[in-house]
Amino acid sequence: xxxxxxxxxxxxxxxxxxxxxxxxxxxxxxxxxxxxxxxxxxxxxxxxxxxxxxxxxxxxxxxxxxxxxxxxxxxxxxxxxxxxxxxxxxxxxxxxxxxxxxxxxxxxxxxxxxxxxxxxxxxxxxxxxxxxxxxxxxxxxxxxxxxxxxxxxxxxxxxxxxxxxxxxxxxxxxxxxxxxxxxxxxxxxxxxxxxxxxxxxxxxxxxxxxxxxxxxxxxxxxxxxxxxxxxxxxxxxxxxxxxxxxxxxxxxx
Length: 253
Known about the structure:
single chain
């Protein structure tokens, strides 16, 4: 009975989580503007791709996500390596603070910090503030994923490289980094996904010229439900769902 019940329970749980996404994707191909099926059509995808405001917002999101991913992956990998080499329970535990802190609190804190600093530097909010904010919350994801990979690495391999004449950088570059590279790539994909999808923190620290795709989607949704949102959402779910699956495959490779 237990063997039968657990798969059924899991199936209902996944159905509850993903059925709304499936329905959204199906109606993104509906010719009608309303939730009444009137035939297959790619009309809403065409409108989404020809919308200049959405194209600009998507480009902003991609630039921000790529920059934040590169910076957070480098910093987070080095931080994870340092925590792996030196036992620091307090620092390791503090990483989870950014994961459990509500986004609205993090956003307001960053905005207050920017206003305090930029008052003296005379710098306005813009793409640079969004990138810095995304780096700040993406680092924790990178560190956690890379640390999980580092725990599978035999530390004596580095010691052997050092005994054979390599310096610390060479031991890391040629021994440890290749061993954890799948984890680093998985962390980068996760950071990219989290950065691209963020709305709350971004909306608080963005300038007038740095609207991202989630902000544009929210603005459209406030004016009323549009089938274009179904098409955009379906593309995001498929695209980033694939990235998450690739990330998980690399993490466990």
